[in-house]
Amino acid sequence: MLLWRSNLEIGNESVDSQHKALFEAVNEFNKLTTQGKAKEEIKKYLEFMGNYAIQHFKEEEEYQASIGYPDIEEHKKLHKLFIKDFLAFKADFDKGSGVESALVIKMNKFLSDWLFEHVSMVDKKIGDYAKSK
Ligand SMILES: [Fe+2]
């Protein structure tokens, strides 16, 4: 389970609240898949998560551009790669006949590892840069 801590904030209120919401979304996905919810419900949740992530990346990239963040291009590539991997997992899930535990275990691990590392290490640098200006 992902726990939000204030030292993960980058100092932009709307980006921080979206990060918090993404943490909650990953925890919710974990809950839905371990509590044996129906495939259709999980499928809908994955759609919501994917759209939320895409919208969040867009807004976060706009914020990076607004402060002249120098690593924005590298950062955009990481967002793009996440979406690609996420959609590949989602396609596997959609293709499956039900909620397959090996796949959802992998998905849960991918989502929580990626999100935590990205927010605590990669996004963190945006906040450090904004503060140094
Ligand atoms: Fe990011």
Structure description:
The chain is mainly alpha-helical and 133 residues long. It has one domain (14-132): Hemerythrin-like (Four Helix Bundle (Hemerythrin (Met), subunit A)), CATH 1.20.120. 80% of the residues lie in helices and 0% in strands. Helix 1 (13-34) packs antiparallel against helix 2 (39-66), helix 2 (39-66) runs antiparallel to helix 3 (72-95) and helix 3 packs antiparallel against helix 4. The longest helix has 32 residues, at 101-132. The termini are far apart. Fe (ii) ion binds at residues 60, 75, 79, 118, 122-123.
Tell me which CATH architecture applies here.
Up-down Bundle
Oligomer: single chain
Task: Say which CATH homologous superfamily is assigned.
Answer: Hemerythrin-like
- For the record, give the distance between the C-alpha atoms at the N and C termini, rounded to a whole number: 34 Å
User: Which geometry do the CA atoms define?
Assistant: elongated
| Alpha carbon gyration radius | 15 Å
Main CATH class:
Mainly Alpha
The secondary-structure element order is HHHH
Largest sheet: none
Bound molecules: fe (ii) ion
Mean pLDDT: 97
Instruction: Give the total of beta strands.
Output: 0
Provide a short characterization of the protein structure.
With 133 residues, the chain is an all-alpha fold.
Task: Show the helix and strand layout.
Elements: H1 13-34, H2 39-66, H3 72-95, H4 101-132
The structure holds fe (ii) ion (FE2).
